[in-house]
Each structure stands twice: as structure tokens, then as C-alpha cells.
Design a protein that fits this description.
Length: about 200
């Protein structure tokens, strides 16, 4: 049984690598519809498409479905690894791992949002050409972030653009550290459960 668990864990690792390669290949337009990309699409897209059904995994033009797909596979892989190593696992440990993986995804998104807002601030001060494809993506995503944060904080009041960016960065940073502390506490509590 232990050998079977290790083998399945190995297969899950390989599948995560294939999804990662598939994601990387989509970043390069010159690859086009190569045989490798087509083969990877057939093998990985049915699983990724299951996550694409959830609208909250889209942030503007950014599709986070592959990230969620990899996070779920990572949880499955951790459970398999613990079972293979110890022969048993508690529900508390599974819940703690799920919480940590969810936090990993959320913390990654918060950091990406902070970086995008910093880039937008840099673009504002250096007067970058927002028609450049890179800056257009930064501008589009930053507008979504600013709209949500400013709606939550200021409702209908008009706020200076730079002030809005700085307050949004500060709020996201504060949320990051508060949630990180909470997740660490909850993970320790869950992992210590006797179930």
C-alpha cells in the first residue's frame, strides 16, 4: 500500500509539472499550436477547465484557474505523502494543509496585486505609455483592484489617484500580515486536533 501511495504521489507531481509547462507555453505567442502544446492541452485542459467554471478565479484578464488546479493537486500530493510516510493522517492535519494551501494561493494573489499597484504607481510617475501592451495589462488589472478597495473604503467619495494607490497598497499589506498570523494560529490548532 505504501508503494502505491508513493507511486500515485509521483504521478500527481508529474501532472503538476505538465500543468506548469502548459501555463508557461501560453506566455509565448511564438510557440503557437505546436505539437507539444496541443498534446499538453488535451491532457491538462479538462482538469483546468473544471476550475474555469468559477468566476472568482478571474481577475480582469488574469485567469487563476491553473493556480487553483495546482493548489488542489498540491493538497492531494501532501496527503498522499503523509499517508505513505506515516500510514495514517488526521482530519485536523488535512484541514491544516488545506488552509495552508489556500493561504498560499491567496497570499500569492495579494502579493501580485501589491506588485501591480506599485508598477502602476511607477508608470504614473514616469509617465509610461499606457498603450504599450505590458502597461495596458497593468492598468487594466490595477483598475479592478483600485475599484474594489476604494469602493470598500471610500464608497462614493472621490479620492486622489496616487492616494488611492498608496492606501490600497497599505490595506493589502495589512490584510496580508493579519491573515498570515491568523492562518498560522489556525493551522497549529487544527494540526493538534486528535481526530
Amino acid at each position: 500500500m505504501i508503494q502505491l501511495l508513493r507511486f500515485v504521489s509521483f504521478l500527481v507531481n508529474i501532472y503538476m509539472i505538465l500543468i506548469f509547462i502548459r501555463i508557461i507555453l501560453t506566455w509565448f505567442s511564438w510557440v503557437g499550436n505546436s505539437g507539444l502544446q496541443t498534446m499538453l492541452s488535451r491532457f491538462t485542459d479538462p482538469y483546468i477547465n473544471w476550475f474555469r467554471r468559477f468566476p472568482f478565479l478571474r481577475l480582469g484578464n488574469l485567469d487563476l484557474s491553473p493556480l487553483a488546479a495546482i493548489a488542489v493537486l498540491s493538497l492531494v500530493n501532501r496527503v498522499l505523502s503523509i499517508l505513505a510516510a506515516h500510514g495514517t493522517i488526521s482530519i485536523g492535519i488535512i484541514l491544516a494543509m488545506a488552509l495552508q494551501i489556500a493561504w498560499g494561493v491567496v497570499s500569492f494573489l495579494i502579493i501580485i496585486m501589491i506588485v501591480i499597484l506599485i508598477l502602476r504607481l511607477i508608470a504614473h510617475y514616469t509617465r509610461q505609455n499606457i498603450y504599450n501592451p505590458f502597461w495596458r495589462i497593468v492598468d487594466t488589472v490595477s483598475k479592478h483592484i483600485l475599484h474594489r478597495v476604494n469602493n470598500a473604503l471610500f464608497k462614493d467619495r472621490i479620492v486622489n489617484y496616487v492616494t488611492a494607490i498608496l492606501i490600497s497598497i497599505a490595506c493589502l499589506g495589512l490584510i496580508y500580515f493579519l491573515v498570515m498570523t491568523l492562518v498560522a494560529f489556525l493551522s497549529r490548532t487544527l494540526a493538534g486536533m486528535p481526530l
